[in-house]
Design brief:
With about 280 residues, the protein is mainly α. It contains 15 helices and no strands.
Length: about 280
């Protein structure tokens, strides 16, 4: 139960704060001896964080859905940008899936990626809409900025590189309004997080259909299914914790972004990366 709470806490906070959830889970496993979450637990954690996005941004999401149904030009454009940004993310995530997964076995590489995340966060203050330019309202999103942001989100599949940190920083570098950058980063995460959960669901369903004969014929796949898991009360607790702390993290980060304090997270990320390199 305790480990479910800790994993839910890590997922809820680190999924949205610009500190890399995947990086923290890898380092937590290596430094603290925490067990890796099973496949079904991953699905539950993703569900918890997805729900928190819908709660915090329910008005924005409702406006987009209703606007699209009414064929409102602005909302159709907004939905189009989210879809457009999701294309390079999916191409990178699926195209380099094996290479990206192999990085989870290299904790020192994760630490280096954490240091890179810190660099992005720290330098974002000098972007056109960064903290050093508080009066710059910024420019609107367009198709090429959406593609660039989606590409950055795909690169953030590398464990240790924060998805929210890298995408918000990228938009600030491109002069996008700070508040909008924060909102768009999390709206475009819905297809990404939902897609990751869907892939985990497919893998879990396949594992449930593994017979002893299939396990003998395909031992590598059978090994991946060892920790597939199933529903338990502990997993529900982890999901609820991820949901609650996901809401807290989202509201906290949006406040930091709007007040021009986004770059302050760099110090924490650098500390984690350096500590990891020293101890591993």
């Amino acid at each position: 139960m305790f480990e479910s709470i800790i994993l839910g806490l890590l997922q809820g906070l680190a999924e949205f704060l610009p500190i890399s959830s995947s990086g923290h889970l890898v380092l937590g496993h290596e430094l603290l001896g925490m067990n890796e979450a099973g496949m079904f637990f991953d699905i539950m954690l993703h569900a918890g964080t997805l729900l928190s996005i819908f709660v915090v941004f329910h008005k924005k999401i409702t406006d987009i859905i209703v606007g699209c149904l009414r064929r409102d030009r602005d909302q159709l454009r907004e939905a189009g940008y989210i879809i457009l940004a999701s294309i390079p993310t999916a191409m990178i995530g699926l195209g380099f899936k094996d290479a990206l997964e192999s990085l989870f076995e290299n904790p020192r590489a994760v630490c280096v990626a954490e240091l890179f995340t810190g660099l992005l966060l720290f330098t974002s203050q000098w972007g056109p809409t960064g903290a050093k330019h508080p009066n710059n309202e910024g420019v609107r999103m367009n198709w090429w900025r959406a593609l660039v942001t989606g590409t950055v989100q795909g690169i953030a599949c590398i464990p240790g590189i924060s998805r929210s940190g890298s995408t918000i920083s990228a938009m600030m570098f491109m002069g996008v309004n700070r508040k909008y950058a924060g909102e768009f980063s999390f709206l475009m995460s819905i297809p990404a997080v939902g897609g990751a959960a869907l892939l985990d669901c497919i893998k879990w369903i396949k594992c449930q259909s593994m017979t002893p004969e299939k396990m003998i014929l395909d031992p590598e796949k059978a090994l991946k299914c060892v920790d597939a898991g199933g529903f338990t009360p502990e997993l529900l607790v982890g999901m609820i914790v991820a949901f609650v702390f996901g809401i807290i993290a989202l509201k906290w980060l949006m406040n930091f972004v709007q007040k021009g304090k986004f770059q302050h997270f760099a110090w924490y990320v650098w500390a984690v990366g350096i500590l990891g390199l020293i101890l591993l």
